[in-house]
Amino acid sequence: MRGELKRLAFAALLILLCASRGSEAGDFRPVDVEGLRILFDSEWVMQTAPGYVPVRLDITNLGDTRVIDIVADGNRYHRFMSGRPPRVQVLQTLRMARGDRVRITIPVPVMDDSENYRFEIQENGRTLEAFAYQGFRSGIPGANASALIVANSSSAFGSVADSLPRPDASGRTVVPGMRTAIPKHDFVLDPSRLPVNWLGYTSVRAVLIGPDEWLALDDPQRGALLTWTACGGDLIFVSADPMPLIGGGHRAPDGQPDGAPHAYFFGRVHRRSTFSIVSAGLVSVLADAEKVQDANFGLPANRMGYWSGTDTRGFRLTIPGVHGVPTRAYLSILVVFSLLIGPINYWLLRRGQRLVLFVLTVPVVSAIFIVLLAGYVVAGEGFHVSGRAATFTMIDEARKQAVTRGSASLYAAGMTPAGGLRFPRDVAVYALGSDGTGSKDNQMLDLTETQQFSSGIIHARAPTNLEEIAFRSARERLTFARDGAGFTVVNGLGARIEHLAYRHGGAAYTLDAPLAAGATGRLRPGATDATAFVPRDLPALGRFTFLFKAQPDNTYLAVLDQSPFWEPGAKGVIERGSFHLVLGWPDGQP
Known about the structure:
By secondary structure, the chain is α+β, with helices and mostly antiparallel strands.
């Protein structure tokens, strides 16, 4: 009853928050405090897909050299939650000299049904400024999440942008006397306030932006938006003008002559006129975009088992040789220990009329059993981390760029890895927990140097499930040369190729045998049977084999023994049964 009352109270609080804030969440205000000039901007869409929300800060240090901490402290709420909600803390430390000005975007992970956060600026453990709490409905399926409309009120697109957001259909109510406007599902944002880290866009359904707004962005903002598009986002460019989309090391493919959407790695670039969007309505525009998006390889989301299910032991990908915690063995040791330290110990001492030694034998027996149990764990499992991953990488050799989507299960045998899991700051990490709905443990994320999940993600002798997506520069490549009726290939992918299928001029060619990194091999004419080397127990079997059947011309599909593009999060992970597939364009993605 108490737990139910807590859930009802939180739901009522969230309704009031949503009603008072409209379609956006967060805080946007300048602050001057103790020699720091801060512009804090956490306003974002209210109904987010699982991923990250961006907190943007522009900080100028007018004082002496100092170290400040940006701290986010919040809680996650699940509809079937019982007990205390898990606590999430995010930390970003900045070292600033006198006169330094830093513009930074902090990606805050959101994964559950709803979450709230409070941000503080701290120095030496002392709070300099605290901002208001903000809440998100963060468990929204990607197709139903809010869209972000980037518009400047002085532009042609900005003059109609306020009419585009869809009415809110989440069941929220407007509290009389607090706000008279009907809440909107989507959010309009000025281009100057866009994040410079692509992870923040993972929480939105799509981004609409006009040509004037695009020109108003700086290079890091354009790069973040195009990186998100390459990782699976829908970028809707509101202009009939074929303006090139360049920035942050990207050049998206030019528009199709017929105006059709164009693929950019995992994502799509849509070019539509302002008139067509206004006349069709945003609901229709987003529905059309969803029809051409490949959900198999788009942005991941929890509760959606794109590439994996969850077995009875909590692993989304079954790891060969890992059978979970040896419960029976541990229980047997515990029973023997209980009998020996209690009744047997007491009977022996009483029989020898030495009960006074009971205070000595108890700690001695306890120490012996601790050593035996530790020895059993080390002998049976060791201290390593086992893992299994299914990854899919797209490489554009002309652009020298690659995007990787991966699903992985990890098992830390003897102890939790020191420091938890570490990933680069620009890798989207989804901690799915043992049931696929997100981690329910307290979490600590340090973004100072890397993306370090120091607690709450991986535990000793417990399943850890992750989904990841990453974009990076890539010099890896395969070099093909015509050789009679076939081709020769030089392996520059940095890993051994187990299988290779190359399609050129409408004909298929296959590698004869595995090819080591740096070696040269020969391709023979003939198609390959993907079912022979795609693991049959892989839940995404059909999706991967389909790639071989519908392989585009002038591309290759390579199966690697290990992937240089995947980030396991811990050193020395022993892979067992992993599957790493690479789709490459030697001449660039058309």
